[in-house]
Amino acid sequence: MTTGNADEDDRRPGGRRPGQSGTKDAILAAAREQFAAKGYAGATFRGIAAQAGVDPALVRHFFGTKDQLFAATLHLPPEVLHRLQQAFECAPEDMGERFARTYLGLWEDPATGAALMAIMRTALTNDQGADLLRDFLQGRLVEQVASSLGADRPRLRALLAATQLVGAVMARYVVRIEPMASLAIDDVVALLAPNLQHYLTGDLPDHAHRP
Amino acid sequence: MTTGNADEDDRRPGGRRPGQSGTKDAILAAAREQFAAKGYAGATFRGIAAQAGVDPALVRHFFGTKDQLFAATLHLPPEVLHRLQQAFECAPEDMGERFARTYLGLWEDPATGAALMAIMRTALTNDQGADLLRDFLQGRLVEQVASSLGADRPRLRALLAATQLVGAVMARYVVRIEPMASLAIDDVVALLAPNLQHYLTGDLPDHAHRP
């Protein structure tokens, strides 16, 4: 498809010789298009590199894993995934509180909150954004959380807890509705944690009604 | 796109000559669809008028600004508020399940689901939409639910339950993430109801950390 390192590549569209920052931008632009066109699962380092006119090794050098590259296209700071993963490295009975505190903390932090807001808005305003977010959540995030849970139906549990947190941040940070908007973080965590804990490790009803 | 005043327009799809009230309804229906499909920012007078089969000037004549048109579309189908109100006319211990079943039912029903989707997308994509939704929720919906609760802090309880339901419909209807998207309604209700019930009538922690 294309060859060579971008720093040596005069055949790049536009003929510009990008510096390192330009190369990164070109990779991100290509990654966004490939993720949009093929979904999270379908997009490949090779395809993204080809479209950006660089070697796949350079994509890996700049962005690490496919997760990290995808996170970068969403402008998701790398510590988001890391902190969420760490939240579940604890005793099962503490997971509800830890998940709440970590996720709300990511929204409180300006460095990560803006990125999370952008992602939520994108997912809600266009189907492509929703598709990408779904693939990513199904493929990675829920799986990652679920792998920390010993309980039955771990993916359903992780997702139920996530829905509560997403609804809570919408009320608090997006729509800013009282009294959720003004409560101290510790109070919000204390209010949500028991329900999150129930989803993560409590008794869930059987799917008695499943057709 | 389309021309002429609707009252003179025989080329309207279907060839019907609507009266003023029918024209307004057609514009509102078109506006709801356009806001839902494109968000507040993306929807235009021209596109709404085209879909309604009227001149953009007529849309402006009836509804004024885009904000005012949006506010008009926010007037949900009257049965939404009515059905939510009815959900709380029951024994306190049944409220969690009734609230879940009613709210999810409104999203399942095409007649009301499109309006709810439009509101959610708009609230998330522009601050004005968020303001409108906040005013509506604070002024009407939460107050109405809270008035049915005998417990302490009824507005906080109603809002917490609402955040869980909003997060759940985002996962199920907007992002369509599995396994939430494919579960039978009865299963989703059974999964959410205990937590909703806890918010509505259970013991909530004191605000020990309030500054």
TrEMBL record, chains A, B:
The alphabetized UniProt keywords are:
DNA-binding
> Which ranges does the entry annotate as DNA-binding region?
44-63
Residues forming the HTH tetR-type domain are: 21-81
GO-annotated molecular function: DNA-binding transcription factor activity; transcription cis-regulatory region binding
| InterPro entries tied to this protein | Homeodomain-like_sf, HTH-type_TetR-like_transc_reg, HTH_TetR, Tet_transcr_reg_TetR-rel_C_sf, TetR_C_16
User: Where in this protein does the record put region Disordered?
Assistant: 1-23
Source organism, top-level taxon = Bacteria
Q: What is this protein called?
A: HTH tetR-type domain-containing protein
Provenance organism: Streptomonospora alba
